[in-house]
Specification:
This protein has 26 helices and 20 strands. By secondary structure, it is an alpha/beta fold. Keywords: Aminopeptidase, Cytoplasm, Hydrolase, Metal-binding, Metalloprotease, Protease, Zinc.
């Protein structure tokens, strides 16, 4: 296992804050970091124990690792291997990679790790509790609980065995207005009766019956709502939020914090949704930007329950100005997408009449507590809030810097092109991410039926489906949602569609000029080369044993490449030499715009229309075919894995109070620096 250390720099941005803003940032950062153990608990039972073990070793030697090695008779090489494991564990907040959800284990023997733990009796006791699951390569990935995969969202033997039970529980939760994002599910037997507990995250602890799943009312499958999951961590978070309230910069921030407290106290996600509405309305951007709560559903096998996340950031004024320039032109840029009719008065049935640009900002993250540090996000995930109130796009500028320093998958680029690829890769990547966030996730109009039975289109003259030329035959019925209809495909199809929007528009000269590019050739060419490289790299997150994808974006990237290989008339050539383990992707520069862009447009139009019309049947056939990994792709995968890029490990700073002042401490981008930063958070 190799590691690439990256410092997430904050000092210059932090020093520019006022005393009040620094105090607000400090308390919000403490709230974010206090969510660490929630994330660990959501990964697997041993994750908190491994965290405790790493922290115990640090405190046993007070960070003097050489002294620990000498005292326990462990070689420096073995020590460094363990420290590398620890740094990657902490950067992923668990022993499964945030990107790909694959398990990683220490590259040292059981005897060596036992000798390290012998430094003290308490540390040895911690190790005994977690040694076996920490060192066992199985389960090798996150997913539906089984011999090879596991999920801490579903506890108890055969929790997901009955799809009928799961559907009935989902319906029961919907009827009782219990949103799933902050819940887990536990199955067990008591006195011969099958029971399910819906574990809801809250400070308050109680248990209440919700009834039986049986139509007859017989107590054969009893359901309870159990509040109090993650109670200690949420209590600490609420304390930090209360301390932050006096330093909020405006009434909207204060209201948001109070709604967050109410939600974390009670488990009621309607209060959380209120906090998101207030958050979206707090524009400008505010001096300190924050994200806190159960946000991303990527790790739930059912794609509905969400991992906790805490982010605190400081806006980057110059970059935000550029992004807002793009946002101001967004309504015009939407007209260049393949489903927009742009008759002058209407964009057609599959796009909103007016694209309201979101609040778009570039921020330096001060604290980013998550299993994966994204380069950009679009929130909130609730589609009704996006439609009715709006949403925010955020680019993390100091996270993006880590991308500028490395060219992932470089070995798959022909040697004659590698210098050009390295020179332009980051510029293309940055614009791709920006377009992904603002126009990828923000566009589109769903055809829907309201609770009173009315439709948001004329049923007597329904819109023509551009894929068939015939009137649309399906739409979202009353109560249906995007995630509910598309289920396991919702996240990956949404990300794929957003990636396609960014790639499709990247050659647009009006967009490029906003970012100070005067011609399109190199940026566009590099974009298509990245699509090839990233499509192949995505295979790293495919599990041939379970035939499951471990990351929504990776599956999307492979599907895009597969479509381009089939549909762009020779734009790509992939050369594979299994014997010499070489894999090279080449792009015909002269066909990028003439063949590549129309091909992306065709795939994008398909996914968009499926999404707008709730056409899960055709979408599943189309997307599962494109993301199917055949024998040829499995050969590619072996080479990709043999030359995989080193995992990212981020060094983030800590804030601390000195009287009425707040100081920032940063750490070296090394394994030792990363471990020290986490130890000094006192979690």
């Amino acid at each position: 296992m190799s590691q690439l250390g990256n410092t997430v720099h904050h000092a210059a941005a932090f020093d520019g804050l006022s005393a009040q803003e620094k105090l607000y940032a400090h308390h919000m950062a403490r709230a974010a970091w206090n969510g660490t153990r929630i994330i660990l608990r959501q990964v697997f039972p041993e994750a908190n124990g491994i965290f405790d073990f790493i922290m115990a070793l640090y405190h046993d030697c007070d960070g003097n690792w050489e002294q620990l090695a000498t005292k326990t008779g462990v070689s420096m090489q073995d020590l460094d291997r363990f420290l590398e494991y620890a740094a990657i564990f902490l950067s992923n907040v668990g022993n499964y990679f945030g990107s790909g959800d694959q398990k990683f284990i220490p590259d040292i023997t059981k005897e060596t790790i036992t000798r390290l733990a012998s430094v003290s009796l308490p540390t040895s006791k911690i190790l005994e509790q977690i040694k076996r699951p920490m060192l066992n390569p199985l389960p090798h990935s996150l997913g539906r609980p089984g011999p090879l995969t596991q999920s801490s969202y579903y506890l108890g033997e055969d929790c997901l065995e009955s799809s009928e039970d799961i559907s009935l529980i989902a319906k029961l939760m919907e009827d009782r207005f219990i949103l799933p994002e902050n819940t887990r599910l536990r199955r067990y037997q008591r006195s011969g009766v099958n029971c399910y507990d819906i574990l809801q995250a809250s400070v308050v602890e109680d248990k209440s019956p919700l009834g039986s799943l049986s139509d007859s009312g017989a107590p054969d499958k009893m359901i309870h709502l159990v509040r109090g999951d993650h109670t200690e961590e949420l209590r600490q978070i609420c304390g930090c939020l209360r301390q932050a309230i006096p330093y909020a910069s405006n009434p909207a921030q204060k209201q948001m914090l109070q709604d967050l407290i109410d939600s974390f106290q009670t488990g009621n996600l309607e209060a959380y949704r209120n906090s998101q509405r207030t958050w979206v309305s707090d524009k400008a951007p505010p001096p300190i930007e924050t994200v806190l709560g159960f946000v991303e559903p990527y790790r739930d096998p059912l794609d509905i329950r969400s991992e906790f996340e805490g982010i605190v950031g400081i806006p980057h004024a110059a970059e935000t100005k550029i992004l807002n320039t793009l946002a101001s032109k967004a309504d015009q840029l939407v007209c260049k997408l393949p489903w927009v009719e742009d008759s002058g008065t209407s964009k057609g049935p599959f796009e909103k009449e007016l694209f309201e640009p979101p609040d778009f900002s570039s921020i330096n993250s001060l604290a980013y507590c998550s299993s994966i540090i994204f380069p950009g996000i679009t929130l909130p995930h609730y589609n009704d809030i996006r439609q009715d109130t709006g949403y925010k796009n955020i680019i993390f500028s100091n996270r993006m810097v880590s991308e500028s320093s490395r060219a992932r998958g470089l070995h798959m680029v022909d040697k004659s092109e590698q210098d050009t690829f390295k020179q332009h890769r980051f510029h293309a990547y940055y614009i791709w991410v920006v377009l992904h966030e603002i126009l990828g996730h923000g566009t589109g109009r769903f055809l829907t039926e309201s609770s009173d039975g009315s439709l948001n289109f004329n049923p007597d003259q329904p819109p023509l489906n551009p894929l068939t030329g015939k009137p649309v035959e399906c739409w979202y019925r009353t109560g249906q949602t995007w995630t509910g209809v598309f289920n396991d495909l919702a996240t990956t199809v949404d990300e794929c569609r957003a990636e396609l929007v960014g790639a499709y528009l990247i050659d647009d000269i009006d967009i490029l000029r906003i970012f100070s590019y005067t011609e399109q050739s190199e940026v566009a060419y590099n974009m298509y080369l990245q699509l090839g490289v990233d499509g192949l790299r995505g295979l790293d997150n495919y599990d041939p044993t379970t035939k499951k994808w471990g990351q929504a974006h990776s599956r999307a990237h492979f599907a895009i490449l597969r479509h381009l290989l089939r549909d762009s008339d020779g734009l790509y050539i992939i050369t594979c030499d299994a014997e010499n383990t070489t894999l090279t992707v080449k792009v015909d520069r002269l066909r990028v715009i003439s063949h590549g862009k129309p091909s992306l447009g065709r795939m994008l139009l398909n996914l968009h229309i499926y999404r707008c019309t709730a056409d899960i049947s055709n979408c599943r056939h189309f997307y599962e075919d494109l993301s199917h990994v055949d024998d040829e792709a499995l050969t590619w995968r072996k080479i990709v894995i043999s030359k995989r890029d080193p995992p990212l490990a981020f060094s983030q700073g800590n804030t601390y109070r000195v009287g009425d002042d707040v100081k920032l401490k940063e750490y070296e981008p090394t394994a030792r620096g990363i471990i020290q930063s986490w130890a000094e958070r006192g979690l």
